[in-house]
Amino acid sequence: MNLTLQIWRQENAKTEGKIVEYPIQDISPDMSFLEMLDVLNRQLITTGDSPVAFDHDCREGICGSCSLYINGEAHGPDRLVTTCQLHMRKFKDGDTIFIEPFRAEAFPVIKDLIVDRSAFDRIQHAGGFISVNTSGNTQDGNSIPISKHDADEAMDAATCIGCGACVASCKNSSAMLFVGAKVSQYALLPQGQIEATDRVQNMVAQMDLEGFGNCTNTGACEVECPKGISLENIARMNRELIKASLKS
Amino acid sequence: MALDSKIPEGPLADKWTNHKNNINLVNPANKRLLDVIVVGTGLAGGSAAATLAELGYNVKAFCFQDSPRRAHSIAAQGGINAAKNYQGDGDSTYRLFYDTVKGGDYRSREANVHRLAEVSTNIIDQCVAQGVPFARDYGGLLDNRSFGGVLVSRTFYAKGQTGQQLLLGAYSAMNRQIGRGKIKMYNRHEMLDVVVVDGKARGIIARNLVTGEIERHSAHAVVLGSGGYGNVFYLSTNAMGSNVTAAWKAHKRGAYFANPCYTQIHPTCIPVSGDHQSKLTLMSESLRNDGRIWVPKNIEDAKAIQNRELKPTDLTEDQRDYFLERRYPAFGNLVPRDVASRAAKERCDAGFGVNKTGEAVFLDFAAAILRYGKEQAHIKGLDEDDASLIQTLGKDLVKSKYGNLFQMYEKIVDENPYETPMMIYPAVHYTMGGVWVDYNLQTTIPGLYAIGEANFSEHGANRLGASALMQGLADGYFVLPYTIGNYLSDDIRTGPISTDTVEFEEAEAKVKSEINHFVNNKGTKPVDYFHKRLGKIMWNKCGMARNEKELKEAIEEISALRDEFYKEVLVPGSANEFNEELAKAGRVADFLELGELFAKDALVREESAGGHFREEHQTPDGEAQRRKEFQFVSAWEYKGEPKDAELHKEALVYENIEVKERSYK
Amino acid sequence: MSGFLSSSIGKKIAMALSAFFLMFFILQHFAINILSVINPDTFNEVSHFMGTNPLVQFALQPVLIFGVIFHFAMGFVLEFKNKSSRKISYAKNNGNANSTWMSRNMIYSGGFILVFLVIHFIDFWIPELNIKYVVGDNSGLLEDGSGYRYFEELQHKFVPLWRVGLYCVGFIFLSLHLLHGFNSAFQSVGANNKFTKSLKGFGIAYAIIIPLGFIVIALFHFFNNTH
Lengths: 248, 665, 227
Description:
Chain A has 248 residues and is α+β, with helices and mostly antiparallel strands. Chain A is built from eight helices and seven strands. The longest helix of chain A has 16 residues, at 232-247. The longest helix of chain C is centred in the N-terminal third of the chain and has 31 residues, at 8-38. Chain C is globular, with a radius of gyration of 20 Å. Chains A and C meet through helix 6, helix 7 and helix 8 of A and helix 1, helix 3 and helix 7 of C.
């Protein structure tokens, strides 16, 4: 396959960036999208250009490092995959492909396609945990039975990989799906009840501080989420916040 | 220096308890005066950082990823073992201990493994308390599945994402401490050297991967939880960034490196699709619970399948060779990983492979779909003879168990695994070898600890499935936080460690000079070119089967490749910016040294054990043959060139287990 | 409850609550208007009641006005905040792949509804205020005293084509706004459970039927006027 790539290049956070066009030849449909970029980078390096910087690590769709806004969609046109698992067979010979970083004021660009997603970490620092020390004396794992339904639903929320596709896809750059998933995981489990009030208030407050936009329920995040995290998690977070506000 | 493993006296089952009761403690007020650096934030590093901070130490944690949550532990799929015996199938601490020592082909320390089995149950309790959503049965209790190499169900799991959930648990514990200011987190930082002051590890040199700045960080102790070195093979199931640099730099500063040749080749990975391949994807071992592995019985059929003239579903049962079930009737498809991988390689080498390169075998779920379909029809009171209904019900159940894995396979291979068998092939997955540590997890450099996959660990020559997560968390939550206190209790009067010393200066200068060499070299070939070539040498000559001649060749070839690398490597950009190629160059430089030591270790170990298979040492029916005279840990001391490394032997003593022929027949 | 409204989710819930109120109002408005098609006399009586009852005039009407202003003001505040959360926009964005046009353009459908409302106020409401509180005629009768004036005036309003056209377009935008807004409001207050699944269909029906009904009323009077 021969393709035309339109890639966002930006030297660092302080400089302005622009879209640069790169033609690329002989791409195999069995390649992953990142392997296609590897080919481009090899070309760029050997011709003395600087390679395109992009985040990637596990390349099996679980670490959440890879991002990329491909042809107007987070993680590209395929569903329920991250960019590293998107394969070139989803494109046609002769296609033009736009590749941009995940954009949000809360995700400043570090270089080219790499953005700083530490805002997500800071939201978790504010309350994304259950306060339990490691002691070896916690109660037996089976002493709190949890209904399979709740455990499964908590698991579905917990599968979030923190990639930021929800923010990137949202026209408002809202992080509610990410925060909702974490709030939901603990809200669904008995272990999480004790701190529930503080947790949701602190996490939402930190989310607001980071400069994410508000949710207008377009549902784009759910569609683009590589792990299929449901909008129900946002509804649950809203309920949790109402409950918490009435209590405190 | 003689190796002292510091294994406590007393009966096996009491060693850890007695040891904990007798080691020195640091009082809470003094813990505030002590700094600990933790490198790596996977299951081991993350859990250690959180626990040390909970105890009151000042922790500085480093990871090269943009968030601690992305460490490669996240990719572990299948599960975590614990001797809970919730299923009442006869499991016990002893049995987990026994299975692990046997699974490791009698090349691990009894005392360490027993301790691991003892604390395994605490891990599950701790993780449940943290809110890890383990799978539960309809009664609300924790569910288990079975894994390779054992006869009980002791594996706890969270769908096919157990590693992710456990890591997010450790990450949440870290978050709590970061929020409290007890952990200072350094994301996108790579450790490039250990600083040793007066014989003790007192800090590290790290590079800020965003700005390129070289930083000095001091502490009273340094903990390496930096993972394994499977990427020395270029293609592996490790993350792209996984590297040996932290461990290797420690080795060059005096930490012995143990058993580098013990590599786990995982049998169920997605086969290589072409030369562009950048990494390999693992399919969880749990698939072998229900999938049956086979190749065609007749070579003509195999050829026809390779050329796509025949479909696997065209072959009848008696035209198929379920080679694991044939060779190992007792364990069948659930034999340990090393055994399964070698058996698959043996069939493919004989020409029975099933993809276009002949390097794949089938993993077939047709029988499981049928069995589950009938079971479901029976439960629901539906017609058990309705073939299409059975198929639908069966596929639904298989989907509920392995849905995410099947989806992943379909995305990568573009074939529907519900309709046609999956193709799998072994790939490098885990390294049992690593930095040598004593019972306290301390390396041969005082104050430098290694935990998780980074140490040479409790897995001997082969790791059982679902044991890596167990070991990482055991080290980080329940072992290191105790043993490091014993060391730090001597440091309560030391005060803050200055970074303004000749030792820091020397280490920083060394790091900078290597970086400057790379960016100024202006060679002709990118880093990956060398990494790929190293990987080919490793896979072909130090892979699933090794022999003296090829190992000797490998040592020479790697040594020559290293010279060429330093002359010809092309690193674009500068040192003072985000420069992934520069980071990669440093990592590959270390792989090029480790690879040579790896081959040398494999050459010296003239026996077959677990993941190390020497063609010269096999039983008449092709099984690994251990030799009594190699019942030791090889600990290598750095002496300049890797091939000049000096071997120290730590004898392995088995007092509680009879060393037997490891049989899964 | 401290700071609830200052949080992003608090604003969103307030937005939803005002939306519920307005959706209820529209339903009520529709119920009265449709009487003008069914039975002009009843329409007149109800209109007179609504126009002169002190509870409606001095309690409910100010609440309604507050609700309208709040919903619009908050809508613009949120839009401004949301726009500033991404200052550099994508060179290529494929919004249709993951969301509806309606959900992405609430500010435009809402904006047009605002324009319509302003005209509607000038057109219907200000003359009403003038008659009742400036002129001081609270009788609700026609000038010749032959009966209530409301139906007559209504018919009269729907004579010019431009007004009927504006009216139709206004309600098309209302429909677009409601097609996203109805279910969105329920999601915002956290009502996402098994009951809201069936609510979804109801929301779509509401978003189409009510505005369509208003359009039908306008067209009915346009084609059946006696002037």
